[in-house]
Amino acid sequence: MTQSRPLRVLSALHSLEPGGVERDVLRFTKGWRDAGVDARIALGRREGRLEEEAPDVPYIIPKKGRLARIETESLWMMLRLPAIIRQERPDVLFFASNGLMAVAAVTKLRLGRDCPPIVLRTSNSLRPPHWSGLHHRLHRALLRLHGRIYAAIVAMAPPLRDEIIEEMGVSPQAVTVINNGALARATAERLATLRDATPRDHAGRHFLAVGRLSPQKNFALLLEAFARIARPEDRLTIVGEGPLREPLTRQAQDLGIAGQLDLPGHCHPVDPWFARADAFILSSDFEGLPAVLVEALAAGLPIVATDCAVTIPSMIEGAGRLVPVRDATALAAAMDAIGNDPVDVPAMRARAARFTLEATIDQWIGLFRKVARK
Question: Which residue intervals define the domain Glycosyltransferase subfamily 4-like N-terminal in the entry (predicted)?
């Protein structure tokens, strides 16, 4: 690491399309810069609704090319990222998502000994519960090849550490637990204050889900479950945008719940929805530790979640109900009953406080300095 300038960390993102990983990197980068790190972001393309949330930090963006589109965004990053790294000369490369692992591997191969040390944060479970045995074994073999290229791997919560060690075949010393700084402390306090001040005197039950309208989130399962238990005045709101908007809209019409479904699209902030809802629903097939779950805890909103990652059971203990993935019957039953369950709101908010940016920033910077010194 060069001593004449601050520690330089370069994070890579495909674009500013809305997603948990993208929000994390934007939030982390601003926090690291405020703490004295020269943190920058390499973007494949500066496009997406998160443009309105993008902080004033250095973005390095290649000239547009025919592969600079969502269908081929990983290939585009593989082609362009090495030149950006040579130009920026970072001390550490940071990849915040499983979805960027192929980009990291190709970057390492292309740069060879000139490649800065790479830190990976796994964003989703490496062992999704719905996978077949063969799929799991093939994926594990690939992960073990990947495990050799990282200077450090970050688990977003303690339960993920053992999973990373087992699936990637790396030594325990290579894996560091840093709770996912899913929101700023001020945001957590704002969510709690607004929910405490908001009357929920609406007719019927209001269920809330937040996330990209993509297959991983399995909102189709949520629509099916809601249709099974919906009373005439009940409502379901899914805040987010993505490629499945039209199929979900058609499904709601087929199920007869189109008039009870709200799809407001990408919204920032989402505080009013957390304040007004009666329960938060996580219907995903797989996750890591979703920021929206931390937001629900900070608000003190009862939760129904699928058992889609090893982190989920401990996160929602005392806060709601856990159901198997892809089980519409179990999800519907839990949604129908969640309003009768007592939840420990002070404990939920204390748990959320462990997953703020302020609670984790020193750990990140310490890890980056340690990796850079190597």
Answer: 18-181
Residues 283-334 pLDDT 10s: 999 999 999 999 999 999 999 999 999 999 999 999 999 999 999 999 999 9
Nearest to 242 by CA among 220, 221, 273, 274: 220
pTM of the model: 0.89
Structure tokens at 325: 């993935």
Residue 17 · residue 50 · CB < 8 Å: yes
276 alpha carbon, distance to own chain's centre? 23
Q: How far apart are CA 299 and CA 136, in angstroms?
A: 36
Could you give the C-alpha distances from 189 to 100, 193, 195, 275, 296, in angstroms and in order? Answer: 32, 6, 10, 12, 12
CA pseudo-torsion sign 95, 100, 105, 111:
negative
Among 199, 203, 222, 188, CA closest to 353: 188
Rounded Cα distance between 321 and 305, Å, is 6
Distance CA 314, CA 116 (A): 36
* The domains spanning 8-181+356-373 and 185-353 adopt the same CATH topology: yes
Contacts of 1 (CB under 8 A, 6+ apart): 7, 91, 369, 372, 373
Of the listed ranges 58-72, 186-200, 296-310, the one predicted with least confidence: 58-72
Eight-state DSSP code of residue 71: G
Cα 116 to Cα 9: distance, rounded to the nearest angstrom: 10
- Superfamily of domain 185-353 in CATH is Glycogen Phosphorylase B; (3.40.50.2000)
Q: Could you say which DSSP state residue 190 is in?
A: H
Q: According to CATH, what is the number of the domain 8-181+356-373?
A: 3.40.50.2000
Q: What are the φ and ψ backbone dihedral angles of 186, each rounded to 5 degrees?
A: -65, -35
Chain position carrying tokens 């890890």: 367
Q: According to the model, what pLDDT value does residue 3 have?
A: 54
3-state secondary structure of 18: coil
Q: Which of 308, 341, 68, 335 is nearest to 211 (CA)?
A: 308
Residue type, 302: P
Domain ranges in the chain? 8-181+356-373, 185-353
Strands (E), 283-335: 303-306, 320-323
Whether residue 205 contacts residue 272, with contact meaning beta carbons closer than 8 Å, is answered with no
- CA distance linking residue 204 with residue 214, whole number of Å: 28
